[in-house]
Amino acid sequence: MIQLENITKEYDSPSAAAGTIVAAQRLNLDVPTGEIFGLVGPNGAGKTTTLKMICGLIAPTAGRVIVNGIDVARQPEDAQKFIGYLADFFSLYDDLKVSEYLEYFASAYKMDTKSIPMRVDEVIKHIGLESKRNAMIHGLSRGMKQRLGIGRAIIHDPLLLILDEPAAGLDPKARVELKNLLRDLQGKGKTIFITSHILSDLEEVCTSVALIENGRLLRVGRLEEVMRDGRPARRFRIRLASADGAFASRLAGWSGVTDVRTEPVGAEFSFGGGDADLAELIRAFVSAGAPVCSIYELSESLEQLYLRISSGENS
Predict the structure, then answer these.
(1) Domain count, the chain
(2) CA 63 to CA 54: how far, in whole Å?
(3) Is residue 313 in some structural domain?
(4) Which of 16, 110, 147, 190 could be 127's S-S partner, Cβ–Cβ 3.0 to 4.6 Å?
(5) How large a percentage of the chain has pLDDT more than 90?
């Protein structure tokens, strides 16, 4: 759905001494159809610049952006038929009703006049605002306004939805509703390209991610692959039914076990072996009488992963 080919974007710095600002540096990225693809990075990393280049709102200094097989720079109007975009700071017309707002943008997208009422009904139902159809926008909650913004972005039924920080400022309930809406849209065949500072939210909904910093991509891939990438070993925690003072020292002597950290009734450790090796470790300790009651793998969060990879890339 999206192909970035050696995309670079440079800006002239306001200060002549500072030279050129590079917002994106030779980015290469493929986003398959049907993905919820997350772009992760701090402020100033180049996320919004990248999104705007995909939408055709700004032109790259070098490289090409392809959306659904169409070169965005050469055929911007054709490409934008497939794109729905929601900026991080978007405007709503407070003196319009919800239905009027969507009707306005349906007309702006040059939709067939006869089809607009039915499409507005579909979108209002899809974004869960049936009870607010005739409500004035100024009276909506932040979460409802966010859903209405997404409704505006999908009113022309685009294949690609691009969302810049859509969860910013939402309360926990509204964030859950937003994640459910995104999953629903993906289920209806949409490809979603999303940025967020709330990395736990991306971790819950994204199928693939790209980590970006200083305009460069650090890692790209399926979420589970990126989450494993670069980890020296898997990490586990064993819980015991009762305290065993010698357990941690015996565990540390086992082949493949490193970085053992003692806990009141158990231990945390890194393990370089595979599943069969882990099963043998557990069997041996249980056979020796260790009161093992559970063992589970510790997962690194997307935020921890980003901090680890970022610091490693810049060390």
Answers:
(1) 2
(2) 12
(3) no
(4) 147
(5) 57
